[in-house]
Write a structure and sequence with these properties.
four-stranded antiparallel beta sheet, 14 strands, Jelly Rolls, mainly beta, six-stranded antiparallel beta sheet
């Protein structure tokens, strides 16, 4: 049996119209994110043809003061039900780039980046999400004891359609 990995990047609707999916960059302001605080990004609408499974790439940078080894920055998925007139967003968080003062109780933890005790250092992780809703936001929570790097360009959140693995029989 041969295994083939393909990327779920093109779809055709019933009329044959082709839609190509590309990585989605998220609008979220993470520069100088305080310890014990969070930010929610702008809500994303992936459109009619959206991937079920995605990889979320997260990069952050520690600030000028070295964090405590083991401190974490967490990434959460904030779901929406996509209702046309009375949309429900988990924990009523809204749909704009905004500060979050207390960690909401109903958001879905995707994963975290764990710091070493090094200042001005880049840390990265990738999280797989299955069952992505059409509309969602990402929330980043600084669970550490130090402020993150001040430059917004030091922090990246990107969503990419996940590869699909299919079995091929001879």
């Amino acid at each position: 049996m041969k295994r083939t990995t393909t990327f779920q990047t093109e779809f055709r609707d019933g009329s044959g119209t082709k839609t190509t999916l590309a990585p989605t960059a998220h609008t979220i302001t993470l520069g100088a994110l305080a310890a014990g605080a969070g930010r929610i990004g702008v809500q994303v609408d992936e459109g009619e043809f959206y991937p079920d499974d995605v990889d979320i790439s997260f990069q952050t940078k520690s600030g000028a003061v070295a964090p405590t080894a083991g401190d974490e920055v967490e990434v959460y998925l904030v779901r929406s039900d996509n209702h046309p007139t009375d949309e429900v967003v988990v924990d009523g968080l809204g749909v704009a780039d905004a500060a979050v003062a207390a960690l909401p109780g109903n958001v879905q933890l995707l994963g975290s980046v764990t710091f070493t005790a090094d200042a001005d250092t880049v840390f990265k992780n990738v999280f797989r999400v299955t069952g992505l809703p059409r509309k969602y936001s990402l929330l980043v929570w600084n669970a550490g004891a130090q402020v993150l790097a001040t430059a917004d360009a030091s922090h990246i959140l990107r969503v990419t359609p996940a590869p699909k693995v299919y079995a091929q029989f001879p």
